[in-house]
Every structure is written in C-alpha cells, then in structure tokens.
Design goal:
Elements: E1 3-7, E2 10-12, E3 18-25, E4 33-39, E5 45-52, E6 58-60, E7 68-73, E8 78-83, E9 92-97, E10 109-113
C-alpha cells in the first residue's frame, strides 16, 4: 500500500520561504517519478512540480518556476519542495503524489501566505 506523509507547512509573510518534505513507503520509490500538487481554497488540484527519482530531472509549472525547487533523497525515500519568494496565491494545501493528477497523495500540509 502506497504511503505518503507530508510535513513542513506553515504560515509565512509574502516573500518568505518554507521547505516541505514528503516521506514515501509501499512502492518502488527509486524507479518512480514524484510530484507536488496543491489545492487552493475552492479550487481544484494544481500540479506544481515533478522529479524523476533516478534521474533527478525536475519540471515545474509556470506559476512556480524560478521560485520553487524540488529535490529528492533516494536512500531516505523523501521528496522535498523548497519554496522561496512565496506569494498569497501560493496559499493552498500541498500534497506529494505519485502522478501529476494527484493520484495516491498524502494527507497534505497547509501553506498560508499572508501579511
């Protein structure tokens, strides 16, 4: 059974930074690609970033490119999302997931950006 547990969310002011973490279990992490997706209040799931676990090659949505960095620790089965220059529109529940549509995602971690 796929297990994903996110952590690291919180409340920050615009321009601030947060680092999200996700620990994975129950599947072949090293051969997978992992994603961060988010859901803002009243909106659908939005893909944020992906990384090939073996290759380490990242990809980003236009809305976060240049501000967010996805990375992974293969041995620890963890995926990270470093978020810099946060904006109020980044406020959302952030999930790590095994695909871009948000399938097999964890319980999420809340990020709130407000002055």
């Amino acid at each position: 059974e796929v297990g994903l547990v996110e952590s690291g969310g919180g409340s920050v002011q615009p321009g601030g930074s947060l680092r999200l973490s996700c620990v994975a279990s129950g599947f072949n992490f090293a051969d997978s690609a992992m994603n961060w997706v988010r859901q803002a209040p009243g909106k659908g799931l939005e893909w944020v970033a992906s990384i090939g676990i073996s290759s380490g090659v990242p990809s980003y949505s236009d809305s976060v490119k240049g501000r967010f960095t996805i990375s992974r620790d293969v041995a620890a089965k963890k995926v990270y999302l470093q978020m810099n220059d946060l904006k109020p529109e980044d406020t959302a529940l952030y999930y790590c997931a095994t695909d871009r549509s948000g399938g097999n995602r964890g319980q999420g971690t809340q990020v709130t950006v407000s002055s």
